[in-house]
Automatic annotation (TrEMBL):
Gene Ontology molecular function: any one: oxidoreductase activity
Pfam families (alphabetical): ADH_N, ADH_zinc_N_2
Domain Enoyl reductase (ER): 16-330
Record's protein name: Zinc-dependent alcohol dehydrogenase family protein
Alphabetical list of InterPro entries matching this protein: ADH-like_N (IPR013154), ER (IPR020843), GroES-like_sf (IPR011032), NAD(P)-bd_dom_sf (IPR036291), YIM1/Zinc_Alcohol_DH_Fams (IPR050700)
SUPFAM superfamilies: GroES-like, NAD(P)-binding Rossmann-fold domains
Length: 333
């Protein structure tokens, strides 16, 4: 009797418990899927929340293989797949939520529409760090706020995961970019192409007056949430301002925004994975990412530490400690 091939994976068996390294069945590529031999898996704050049982919106129930982002090599191509062949280097935001196997494993069978060819000038580690943060930034700035050249864009949390990519996208598309951060983040924020704002040194009213003559910003991307989203409402441009948030999950008073006749949009990047709708758009966004990256307009901040499936819990602890100097990545191969 033949046995199915196995692969190594890090498995979450119970919320709040360390991931367990074990052998599980290797998936096969079904119709519309490609089998990816995973080389690197990006670590996102959401992975930690899922593991702790604090992310009901991700619809992940143990036992589960986490890991939202991946980079790897196409090992097999299922029926009805066009545009990919065995040996292609790819990246994407492909699972780890909604019961879909994640990237903390040697292989994953993923919806081909979620993938794009890896930028030629990126390593597997760099590519694995990008999908969720780039898609989140792009959906907010381009899909929701309709960013165009010449606009004044404010990014809250400009040195963070989504923030540093949002700054670079806005800059690449011709906007005048501003970003909040701490004083010690000024150099990094300016290197990404933004004018840095020390949020501890000035009030919202003060930097709105200083930088926009009191008029406000055309687009504000909040990547922090909470009180920062409230501050965004007060900094939007009269009549034409648009506030976008990827963390607008609290209760907020809309009066400051309404009194400025401005608008608001939320970004929920997981929706195509959870609903099955709009997945091809994520692949299209990553093709845009590859184009900008290969043109030298986008760089990802990557922490220098290396982790493997055997030390994935150390990677999660490092992410929880918030001491990393950029995105954390787990090497799989």
């Amino acid at each position: 009797m033949s046995t199915s091939p196995l692969m190594q994976a890090a498995v979450l068996h119970a919320y709040g418990q360390p991931l367990s390294l074990e052998h599980i069945a290797r998936p096969q590529a079904g119709p519309g899927q490609v089998l990816v031999r995973i080389k690197a898996s990006g670590v996102n704050p959401l992975d930690l929340k899922i593991a702790a049982g604090q992310a009901a919106h991700a619809r992940t129930v143990p036992p589960a293989v986490l890991g939202i982002d991946l980079a790897g090599v196409v090992a097999a191509v299922g029926a009805d797949v066009n545009g990919f062949q065995v040996g292609d280097e790819v990246f994407g935001m492909t699972g780890g939520v909604g019961g879909i196997q994640g990237s903390l494993a040697e292989y994953a069978a993923v919806d081909a529409s979620l993938l794009a060819l890896k930028p030629r000038n990126l390593s597997m580690r760099e590519a694995a760090a990008l999908p969720l943060v780039f898609i989140t930034a792009w959906e907010g700035l381009v899909d929701r706020a309709r960013l165009h050249a010449g606009q004044r864009v404010l990014v809250h949390g400009g040195a963070g995961g989504v923030g540093h990519i949002a700054v670079q996208i806005a800059h690449a598309l011709g906007a005048q970019v501003f970003a909040t951060g701490s004083a010690d983040q000024r150099q990094a924020i300016e290197a990404y192409g933004a004018i840095a704002i020390d949020y501890r040194a000035e009030t919202v009213a003060q930097y709105v007056e200083r930088l926009t003559g009191g008029e406000g910003f055309d687009i504000i991307y909040d990547t922090v949430g909470g009180a920062t989203l409230d501050a965004s409402f007060a900094a939007a441009r009269l009549y034409h301002g648009h506030v976008v948030s990827c963390l607008g999950w609290g209760t907020h008073a809309l009066a400051p925004l309404s009194f400025r006749a401005a608008s608001y949009s939320g970004v929920f990047t997981l929706l195509p994975l959870l609903s099955g709708q709009g997945r091809a758009h994520h692949g299209a966004i990553l093709r845009k990412a590859a184009s900008l990256i290969e043109a030298g307009k986008i760089k990802v901040a990557l922490d220098a530490a290396h982790y493997t499936l055997a030390t994935v819990n150390d990677a999660h602890r490092a992410a929880a400690a918030r001491t990393a100097q950029g995105k954390l990545v787990v090497d799989i191969a």
